[in-house]
C-alpha cells in the first residue's frame, strides 16, 4: 500500500504567540492527514497570547501541542525539511528569514495584526476575531488548491458552526459589518456547501470566494 507524503508547512510571525500559533492549529485540525504544520518566530514569546488561546477554544483540538518557538529550531541539520514557509507578519520578510534546510518556497499571507500598540481592549478583541477568521479562510483556500486536494480530516462547515456558536457568549456588544467578524462567521457556517457530506466541497467553495474577494493574497505554490 502506498503512503501519501505529507507536506511540511512552517508559519512565521514575530513572537509566535498568536498568528502563527492559530495558523498551525487550524492547518493541523483541518488537514492533518496531508500536512505537518509548524510555527515559529525570531523573537518567541514566553507563552501563547491569552486571546489566541480563547480563539483556539472554539472547537480546536490539540492545543497542548502548541507553544511559541524560535525559528532557529528549524534551521539546524536535523530540523524537518519544510516544503513551504508562510509569513504572517510584516516584520517577517525575505530579508530577515533565515536559510531553512531544503530551500522551501516562501509565501506571505496578509492578515490583521492584533498585537499592535495603542489598542483598546475592545479593539484588540475585535482584531483577534478578524485575524482568526482571515486565517480560517486562508487555510481553507490553501488546502483546496489542486496540488493538495483531498478530503479534509474535519469538515470545514462543522468547524465554522462550532466556532460561531462558541463566539456568541463572548460578544463585546460591538456592532460591526466587517466581513471577517464573528457575524460573518455565521454566514459561512450557514453556507449551503457547509452542510455537504464532504468537507472538500465547502473548502473548494471557500477558496473561490477568497480568491474573488482577496486578490492580494498569494495562494500559488512553487
From TrEMBL:
Question: Where does the signal sequence lie?
Answer: none
Q: Name one Pfam family in it.
A: LMWPc
Domain Phosphotyrosine protein phosphatase I residue range list: 7-145
Q: Where in the sequence does UniProt note compositional bias of the Low complexity kind?
A: 184-195
Chain spans, region Disordered:
169-195
Keyword vocabulary terms for this entry:
Arsenical resistance
According to its UniProt entry, the protein's GO biological process terms are: response to arsenic-containing substance
- Tell me the SUPFAM superfamilies matching this sequence: Phosphotyrosine protein phosphatases I
Q: State the protein's name.
A: Protein-tyrosine-phosphatase (Modular protein)
Amino acid at each position: 500500500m502506498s503512503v501519501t507524503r505529507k507536506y511540511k508547512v512552517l508559519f512565521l510571525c514575530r513572537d509566535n504567540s498568536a498568528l502563527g500559533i492559530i495558523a498551525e492549529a487550524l492547518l493541523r485540525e483541518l488537514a492533518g492527514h496531508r500536512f505537518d504544520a509548524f510555527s515559529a518566530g525570531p523573537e518567541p514569546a514566553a507563552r501563547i497570547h491569552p486571546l489566541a488561546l480563547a480563539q483556539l477554544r472554539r472547537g480546536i483540538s490539540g492545543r497542548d501541542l502548541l507553544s511559541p518557538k524560535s525559528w532557529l529550531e528549524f534551521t539546524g541539520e536535523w530540523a524537518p525539511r519544510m516544503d513551504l514557509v508562510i509569513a504572517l507578519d510584516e516584520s517577517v520578510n525575505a530579508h530577515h528569514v533565515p536559510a531553512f534546510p531544503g530551500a522551501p518556497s516562501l509565501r506571505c499571507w496578509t492578515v490583521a495584526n492584533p498585537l499592535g500598540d495603542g489598542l483598546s481592549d475592545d479593539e484588540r478583541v475585535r482584531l483577534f476575531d478578524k485575524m482568526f477568521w482571515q486565517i480560517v479562510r486562508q487555510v481553507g483556500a490553501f488546502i483546496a488548491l489542486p496540488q493538495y486536494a483531498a478530503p479534509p480530516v474535519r469538515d470545514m462547515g462543522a468547524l465554522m458552526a462550532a466556532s460561531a456558536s462558541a463566539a456568541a457568549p463572548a460578544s463585546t456588544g460591538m456592532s460591526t459589518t466587517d466581513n471577517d467578524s464573528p457575524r460573518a462567521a455565521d454566514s459561512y457556517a450557514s453556507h449551503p456547501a457547509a452542510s455537504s457530506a464532504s468537507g472538500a466541497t465547502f473548502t473548494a467553495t471557500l477558496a473561490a470566494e477568497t480568491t474573488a474577494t482577496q486578490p492580494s493574497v498569494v495562494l500559488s505554490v512553487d
